[in-house]
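Here is the promised in-class demo. Please do not try to memorize the tokens; focus on the logic of going from shape to residues.
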């Protein structure tokens, strides 16, 4: 059976509903083998994608997940077509309206295959990056317990936090490898580039300072389109959690591990930290 309503995903349907399938596949937890491990794996994949698709190995898990996400997006597109609102109300419905508008345009790039690709990119670009940034933020809060209190009131956005992305790839036949680390760790731009230091963003009177070398979202044509959303999400999550729970190491646990795991993003080591409910702090939830 193939998808109805002209969805370009012309492959057999899974019997499990996509959202359940998606969450089941994505929350199954770590398996013994780490996909695409090793420092050269991301570059190799970009240079030889066809080889990576054919070679057996743990990285095949990524392609299976990719299929699950793709199926889920196809189902969403189908649902949107079934109950098309009068006025487009989200990204998929706006894009579908644009496809209809551009039907007679022979050079239009608005089509369903591209819609699937763009939505996958939003998932890919918008989840691990933000989650990893938050993860590092809380690890640094545990490491620098003393600054947690003042930071509750003066969180300055994600600006004072490790950038999780080390390099990224371009499209349209040209491989672009902007090395953001060269500016984010440049000793000429940062007093202590290898250390967490909120002072990088404060002037001598403690006022917020813009540093032009702070480019975690890249710049120019390649700037991250989720920049504003990410900063808003990070601010809300970080500020709300921090004002409600002091973060600390669990009793008797070893020192924090600050070395990163090298990959598509720079991941913190798996380790436990405690969010201790604080009686005098405001309660979590909507206010
Ligand atoms: C801390 C959070 C984030 C960081 C550090 C980050 C960083 C970046 C960087 C550096 C790029 C440029 C890649 C290049 O040079 O080609 C990029 C691209 C991208 N980001 Fe983000 N991003 C974040 C959050 C998000 C969010 C929340 C979304 C969407 C919901 C998003 C969607 C994308 C997409 C779709 C691209 C590819 C754009 C293109 O190729 O034209 N990102 N991101």
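The designed amino acids, position by position:
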């Amino acid at each position: 059976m193939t998808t109805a309503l002209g969805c370009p995903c012309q492959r057999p349907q899974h019997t499990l509903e996509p959202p359940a399938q998606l969450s089941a596949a994505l929350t199954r937890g770590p398996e013994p083998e780490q996909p695409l491990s090793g420092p050269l794996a991301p570059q190799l994949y970009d240079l030889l994608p066809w080889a990576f698709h054919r070679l057996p190995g743990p990285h095949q898990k990524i392609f299976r997940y990719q299929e699950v996400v793709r199926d889920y997006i196809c189902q969403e597109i189908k649902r949107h077509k079934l109950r098309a609102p009068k006025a487009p109300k989200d990204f998929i419905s706006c894009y579908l309206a644009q496809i209809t508008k551009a039907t007679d345009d022979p050079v239009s790039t608005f089509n369903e295959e591209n819609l699937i690709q763009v939505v996958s990119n939003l998932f890919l670009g918008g989840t691990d990056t933000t989650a990893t940034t938050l993860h590092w933020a809380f690890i640094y809060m545990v490491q620098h317990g003393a600054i947690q209190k003042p930071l509750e009131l003066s969180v300055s956005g994600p600006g004072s936090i490790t950038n999780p992305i080390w390099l990224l790839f371009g499209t349209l036949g040209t491989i672009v490898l902007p090395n953001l680390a060269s500016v984010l760790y440049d000793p000429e731009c940062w007093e202590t580039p290898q250390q967490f230091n909120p002072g990088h963003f404060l002037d001598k009177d403690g006022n917020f300072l813009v540093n032009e070398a702070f480019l975690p979202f890249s710049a120019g044509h390649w700037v991250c389109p989720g920049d504003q959303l990410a900063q808003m999400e990070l601010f809300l999550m970080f500020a709300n959690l921090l004002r409600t729970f002091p973060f600390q190491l669990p009793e008797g646990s070893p020192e924090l591990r600050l070395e990163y795991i090298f990959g598509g993003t720079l991941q913190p080591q798996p380790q436990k930290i405690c969010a201790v409910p604080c009686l005098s702090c405001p309660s979590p939830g909507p206010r």
